[in-house]
Amino acid sequence: MNQIKERFLERLAREPAVLVHVAATEGSVPREAGTWMAVFPDALVGTIGGGHLEYQAVASARARLAGAVGPELQRVVLGPSLGQCCGGVVQLRFESVDGAHVKRLEQALTGQLQPVALFGGGHVGHALVRVLSNLPFALTWIDSRDGIFPEAVPKQVVCEYSDPVQRAVPRLAPGSHVLIMSFSHAEDLDIVAECLKRQREKGDLPYIGLIGSKTKWASFRQRLAARGFSDKELAYVTCPIGLPGIKGKEPEVIAVAVAAQLLQGTPK
Length: 268
Known about the structure:
Elements: H1 2-12, E1 17-26, E2 36-40, E3 43-46, H2 51-65, E4 73-77, E5 89-97, H3 102-108, E6 114-119, H4 123-132, E7 137-143, E8 157-161, E9 177-180, H5 185-201, E10 207-210, H6 214-226, H7 231-234, E11 237-238, H8 251-264
Parallel strand pairs: 6-7, 6-9, 7-8, 9-10, 10-11
Antiparallel strand pairs: 1-2, 1-5, 2-3, 4-5
């Protein structure tokens, strides 16, 4: 999602486009209000749901690029005549934009990003960054090992070196969803403990996810209980992480399952 925005704004700096917003909806529709796509003479960036609705919107937008004049708002009834069976109503807003609008659109199209703190720069961590950078998340990527991060990361990803790694926990943005998958179980345990301390004091970490098996979590529960954490506090931790039912242990599969769980909401 954010990479799509970046691709649009980079091209918009060079040539004009028509921005098509889903301004409002009624009933069953392909995409929700706030969805957008950018139409260039020979390319599209983003989508408002595909099908004949998008086909007509692209035709209208390209007519505007060629100099035609039309209403800014267009109400489209989805049904048999349009070849789509959703049955709802979509109101589209057409906006002609160029390089002068880049700064304004960079803010307007960002939306509200959910903060996520990812501890661990291993294979699963890298796969998660690739997946989450295309979704509405602002990611802080943390590791205790120097030189572990790639040279180039998406704009909404902030890399942070922290040694000891758990020292980064108090600095996390309020409301952060925390994903813990460091290179060692000892680090994982310290990060979980620090998250639970913060949760005890502030209650502002809605999701604390630990990668691992049920056996790993059983061992961690005993150690964390010995550190003074109650059963109620330990219940804040999700382990294993990822949407249930998604099989496979490949990093990319785990990343998709975890992203799906985050998109679904706090899994409690």
